[in-house]
Amino acid sequence: MRYSRYLIPTMKEDPSDAVVSSHRLMMRAGLVRKESAGMYVYLPLGHKALRKIINIVREEMDNSGALEFLMPELTNADLWKESGRWNTMGPEMFRIKDRNNLEYALGPTHEEAFTNAVRSTVTSYKELPINAYQINTKFRDEIRPRFGVIRSKEFIMKDAYSFDVDEEGLDKSYQTMRSVYRKIFDRCGLATIPVQADTGNMGGSASEEFMVASEVGEETLLICESCSYRANQEKAVFKREEKSGSITGELEKVHTPDVKTIDDLVKHFSAESSKFLKSILYTADGETVMAVVTGDREINEIKLKNHLGCVELELASDDKIFEATKSPVGFAGPVGIKNIRIVFDLSVKNTFDAITGANEKDYHYKGVNPGRDFEIKEEADLVTAVEGDACPECGKKLSATKGIEVGHIFKLGYKYTKAMNFTFLDKNGRPANPIMGCYGVGVTRTLAAVIEQNHDEKGLMWPKEIAPFDVHIVGICKTEEDEKKIAEIYEEIKKAGFDALYDDRKNSPGIKFADADLIGLPLRITVGKSFFDTGDIEALDRKTKEIKRLQRKELVPYLKEFFGR
Ligand SMILES: [Zn+2]
């Protein structure tokens, strides 16, 4: 492609609204333009790179035996109502009505649509397993779109849904996708960190996220440098400290007017925050439940929800708190509470002479001891792990890092096939529900993540497999005669099977070199003064900055070696 016939509107200055490298460079190198908040136009160069990622995803999915579908992006409300998600998807789902007042959603995800498509075509165990996928646009009504294409209102995703006859089959499908994802991200030149993620009520190691470490990531990962433990903070567990101590005090009620928060308590009692037992009341599917954790820890509502196995979990209302504890908010504690379910965090049993609410306005207990003053009938891991906590596998310290999620694999179970009554006839001719897994790759997000990982102060540094072109030819000459000679080299490179961008513009060498650095194709070939003087062509590796001087006949063999083709 001749640069003069292509469209690459590079920018010298950083756009004012771009705070992350990928957004800044995608704008400056002419890959995208913003249409409006959270919506981007892919210009030819950006689209070409995106297509390469799509092709890699498609190739690897097809090789694994998955079947490509193309689903409507408009999804019928009836399907969402069947699964029960029409009311629970929240304001991030775009909902629209047609002229006949029928309701639809612009698909943010396609569990329902695929379950429906497969149930209408599969009737027997002989037709399973199936892994159905599509590469398509997804929509999300982001409250605050940001970071360019990383968090936008519409984006391209590959989403896949496996349907198996039993759990063993699901595990096989899941493991296949796990290795497919590694291949996809490797080929894109992206270093990902697979981390254990929250699995809802499924349990086990049934969910993994593929994360890219990045300062702009919105997820926190806890990583052990000594072993292979990696987990999303939502899910991460940690080894509890064995605390030794002994009961020294009697249970004593203390008057604590205007003392409500943990900070107030720490001041009032001049004790460490770990000495306090925080008791938080929730309504879980209508039932009032008390969760008790030590004062130095944040309660993890995802863990609590998974432990309780409830669908809806919210903080209890003031009325419910009064009903359960006979006191206003701020004075709840486990001592003397018999009428509601109480779940204790694993560290509570290791506290001695603790302080907690006395279930009476303006009073706390001190000298509280588990076992003596209240019974621990039910305990679970209820708190969020943080940097510095001990690794659950090896005991070394966990460190925290921010990450962007580019892929997610998940064992769904029977949730959708049961809710939507999808049955097949099993070996014995009896109806059974298939078991599902789902697997997503954020395609546009992968492009941004690759750029986050592969750039320097001058611009992009494309990994070879997804670079929009292989080589960038910079021609520098004064006469038409010389231009023809450069064009011959360009043709020769094309003929050898390499995709070349030939900068034939009448601009200064300085502008051409700056644009080549910014666009960042893997190899820059300069045909200029030294070629016309001595026959030397200069090849610059964009990533390593290594320069090779080649004679014309050495050029194609060098390209073959460089690209390994
Ligand atoms: Zn470890």
Describe the fold and architecture.
With 565 residues, this protein is α+β, with helices and mostly antiparallel strands. The protein folds into three domains: 46-236 and 400-451, BirA Bifunctional Protein, domain 2 (2-Layer Sandwich), CATH 3.30.930.10; 252-380, YbaK protein, CATH 3.90.960; 469-563, Anticodon-binding domain (Rossmann fold). The chain contains 14 helices and 31 strands. β1 (32-36) and β2 (39-42) form a beta hairpin. 41% of the residues are buried. The model has no long low-confidence stretch (mean pLDDT 94). Zinc ion (ZN) binds next to loops.
Quick recap:
The chain contains 14 helices and 31 strands. It has about 575 residues and is α+β, with helices and mostly antiparallel strands. It has three domains: about 45-235 and about 400-450, Bira Bifunctional Protein, Domain 2 (BirA Bifunctional Protein, domain 2); about 250-380, Alpha-Beta Complex (YbaK protein), CATH 3.90.960; about 470-565, Rossmann fold.
Oligomer: single chain
Rg over CA atoms, rounded to whole Å, is 30 Å
**Inertia-based shape:** elongated
Instruction: Tell me the CATH superfamily of the largest domain.
Output: Bira Bifunctional Protein, Domain 2
Uncertain regions: pLDDT < 50 for 5+ in a row?
Answer: none
Biggest beta-sheet profile: 9 strands, mixed
**CATH level 1 class label of the largest domain:** Alpha Beta
Task: Briefly note the structural class of the backbone.
Answer: alpha+beta
Count of individual beta strands: 31
Ligands, ions, cofactors: zinc ion
Distance between termini? 20 Å
Average pLDDT level: 94
Instruction: Please indicate the percent range of residues in DSSP E strands (runs of 2 or more).
Output: 25-35%
The total of helices stands at 14
Number of domains: 3
Helix content: 25-40%
CATH topology of the largest domain: BirA Bifunctional Protein, domain 2
Write the CATH architecture name of the largest domain: 2-Layer Sandwich
